[in-house]
Each structure stands twice: as structure tokens, then as C-alpha cells.
Amino acid sequence: MNNKEGNNKRSGARPTSSRPSSNKPKPAMQKRAQGPKKVKINPKVAEAAANKVEKKPNQAPKRPKVADEIRLNKYISNSGVCSRRDADIYIQSGNVKVNNVPVTEMGYMVKPGDIVNFDGAVLTPEKKEYILLNKPKNFTTALDEGQEFRNVLELVRGSTNAKIAPVGRMDKNTTGLLLFTNDTDMLRKFTLPSQKSSKIYQVSLDKNLKFEDLEKINKGLVLDGHRVFVEDVSYIENEAKSEIGLKLRSANVKVVRSIFEHFDYNVLRIDRVSFAGLTKKNLPRGNWRFLTEQEIINLKNV
Questions:
Q1: Is residue 302 a contact partner of residue 249, using CB atoms and an 8 Å limit?
Q2: Quick one: DSSP state of residue 156?
Q3: Which end of the chain, N or C, is less packed with Cβ atoms under 10 Å?
Q4: What average pLDDT does this structure show over 202-221?
Q5: Which residues, 6 or more positions from 133, have their beta carbon under 8 angstroms from its beta carbon?
Q6: pTM of the model
Q7: The CATH number of the domain where 220 resides is what?
Q8: Is residue 267 part of a domain?
Q9: Under a CB-based contact definition with an 8 Å cutoff, are residues 106 and 256 in contact?
Q10: How confident is the model at residue 298 (pLDDT cuts 50, 70, 90)?
Q11: 245 by DSSP, 3-state: which?
Q12: CB 195 within 8 A of CB 189
């Protein structure tokens, strides 16, 4: 080993490569793969597409509404024969004629002077009426209890010529608020088990309600295999513990009576003091009044 080679090893220097250096340029790096180009969206086109409504089967083409026109299903409902939902079924099945021509289009508009034939009978629509009565005792909503007890319709006779009916049922012993209307949609709405309007009752018992029974009622209970949900139950302030306030959604007064009889209490009196936000304020027992426009709107929005 010569001195030059030994010096290189000691100093740790890298041996010089004997390969000749290349002056060729390095190859360019490949470009990254790019995704699909974004398409520019025209805002006006997008808005038109979003507002486009798919036409349903048997749906009449939309056109500007003419004054005094009314949808066929509403016309039928206003005549008091059935609700708008049921009217749609009759229309689709071909049981409705306008000017002697069968109509199956949903949304068909009836014009003044048109003759509507429903299941073989000519219809005459009437104005919707809404009447609130503060019912006294010894009047019933039933039509089959003989002559011993009079029907509640006697109390609102003369209020209107429309064919009104009570919303829900009340026996002879129950007093308080009872709504009458010829609006078949509303009649159906407030008699459905799924309806969500609250009613408040003042209940008089034959003895004081025990606090533990009050708590059990407040938690809800099962009657005849059906779950009864109670929104609130409480003692009435400054009254005996036999005077109870009960708030629930059922319009069936029999349910109120059954709740307390389930705990071995006899119900002496039931008075409905509130119905879907309506109260007895300025309405003495045995009297009735028409609902205000705002009250009608509130009922429809319940």
C-alpha cells in the first residue's frame, strides 16, 4: 500500500469515481393525474330544475285560478257528504261527474254554475259554520236514547240552516264545551285517536282523591288493553281534594270516567272547561256562540 492510498483511508475520504460524468439533462417529472374538470353550473338553470315538480298521475295541469273557482274535493266536502280525503277516493273511482261528464283528475276546479253529481246525487255546497255550546245537563249527543233526554241540537236550533253535527260525544250527565260544525274535515280530525288537541275537564268525585292515586294517574294507565296518556292531573286550588282537574287529548268523555272508576272512585260530575284552546269565558251554561275567524284558524292548525 502506498502512502497516498493510506492517507485516503485514514481521512475517510470517498474514493473518486473513475466513471466519466454525464452532461445529459434529467428527465422531467410526470404530471399528477387530475380528476375530471368541474363543469360550471348556470344558477338560473339549477333554480329552474329545483323548482320543477314531477306531475303525478291523474293530476290536472296547473293553470291560473279563476275567481270563485274551487277544487272539486273541497266542493264535495263543503256539501257535507264526506271529507276531502274521502272525496279524492270517490273522484279517482269515477263516481263524480261535473256537468254530466265523469271527472277523475285530482285538482279539478269547479266553476260557478257547474253541476256536480256525487254518486248519483246533485250536490249543493254550504258555508262552513263553527258553533261553540256550553252544554247543560240532561242533553245528549246520542240520537237513540228515546224521549227521556233531549238532543243537544235543540240547544243550537235556529243558529244556522247548515247541517251541523257535534264534534265527539257527550252523555246526559256531562256538561261544558261542545263544538258543532258542518266541516267534515274538522269532524274527522277531532275524532281520530291520533289527534293532538288537549281537553281539560273538572271532575267531581264521591271522595277525596288519594295522592298516590293521583300520581298513578299522572303516569298514565292501561284501560281495556289501551294505553291512556294523561297530560296533567291535579287538585283544584281552594277546593276539596275531591275536585280534580284532568288534561288529556282524548275527546271521549267515557275515558275520563273510566280513569277514576279504575281506582274505585265514583264520578259525580264531569265538566269540560277547555277544548283545543277554546274556553267557557263569557259563555254561560246553555248558551252558544259562533267562533271567530282566528279561533277557526287555530283549530285548523292544531
A1: no
A2: G
A3: N
A4: 95
A5: 152, 155, 156, 177, 178, 179, 180, 287, 288
A6: 0.65
A7: 3.30.70.1560
A8: yes
A9: no
A10: very high
A11: strand
A12: yes
Looking at the 3D structure of the chain, how many domains does it have?
3
Counted residue by residue, the chain has a size of 302
Cβ contact 244:209 at 8 Å: yes
Residue 290's closest CA among 142, 130, 182? 130
Same domain? 137 vs 239: no
pLDDT digits (tens, 9 = 90+) for 88-134: 999 998 899 999 999 998 889 988 888 899 888 888 777 889 999 99
Give the domain extent around 177: 130-192+284-300
Instruction: Report the CATH number at residue 168.
Output: 3.30.70.580
219 pLDDT exceeds 80? yes
Are 220 and 263 in the same domain?
yes
Residue 262 C-alpha cell reads as 279504575
pLDDT of residue 60: 46
**C-alpha triplet 129, 290, 148: angle, nearest 5°:** 85
C-alpha grid cell for residue 126? 254550504
pLDDT tens readout for residues 128-174: 899 999 999 999 988 765 556 789 999 998 898 888 999 988 988 99
CATH number of the domain residue 88 falls in: 3.10.290.10
Q: How far is CA 160 from CA 150, 165, 183, 280, 284, in A?
A: 19, 12, 13, 21, 20
Which single residue is written with the C-alpha cell 274521502?
Answer: 86
The answer to whether position 245 is within a domain reads yes
